[in-house]
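Progress against Task 2.4 (sequence-to-structure conversion) is shown through the following example record, which the project officer requested during the mid-term review.
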Amino acid sequence: DVDVRLHETAVGDETGIALGRALGSCDKLTKLAVGLNGTALTDQGGKAFAAGLNRPELQDADVRLHETAVGDETGIALGHALGSCDKLRKLDVTLSETAVGDETGIALGRALGSCDKLTRLNVDLYGTALTDQGGKAIAARLNRPELQDVDVRLHETAVGDETGIALGRALGGCGKLTKVFISLEGTALTDQGGKALVAGLNRPELQDVDLTLHETGAGDETGFALVRALAACDKLVRVCTAFDALTDQGGQALASGLTRPELQDLDCRWNCVEIGDATAIAFGESLCGCLRLRKFTLGMAGAKLGNAGLNSIAAALASLPELTEIWLYLPGTEVTRNCVDDMERQLQRPGLKIDYD
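Structure tokens generated for the chain above:
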């Protein structure tokens, strides 16, 4: 078991080279965590460190190189080493805000293809030079038969619909999936890739879904497809979605389709200028059935929301006996201060926290 965390220090390539040499002698290593975020590491030390990760007994690996100067040489070496670790059950790879790109994506995809025992996977490549070529290579290999928890963060990259389509196909093969976090904010995704992606979420064991699609072209069609997919997920207790290309048509469908009796945490950040009271009223009508809901978050910044919509939501929330936390983010809407005050009075009770902005 090795745990080395040197984040935000002046260490660099000499440390990376030394780590790689040392790890190369650890034939019985089962668990590894190395954090070098924000250091002076470049490919010279990064690829030497990565080469030492090909430990045959490794089951849990956590590698964090965020905001360093490493690039594809390190990414390729990392992929090659991890491809030899066929006993891996948990893998966290963080290469965000580095110079890696498609060659790294392809190398990591190949490595994942050898990891049939993976139960938890986190791949964090946001803010890199990744395009669909590397994005779809990673996405296609997520169909690991034992995978239960997957976290993929590719926001602020040039990936798009091909990656979305590959993600949907792969997730559709994960029969044991219970938790999904996917962030594609600020990418080239449209409804073509968005609806294919969410179609793969119809996993019967799924309990927790977090989908961030802000600053993309994914809108109503993706929303409709998400409702259809999650209809098969009877065990859901948490749903978090983020859109900004919805209209009231998609908003109403989501507001009605995401609510369910067992839900405990519902987080909807829909800062969409084309939604308004119709979506909010649909929320009001459907939230009444969420009797186990404990936390409700709604962001509709800049939407065409008025007092009628907020009143509908408030009336529904007041009927939920287990609710403990409400967070509303509604700047730039038509909701008046008096309406907000009325809502707070209506919802006031011991143990219930309300944050409004």
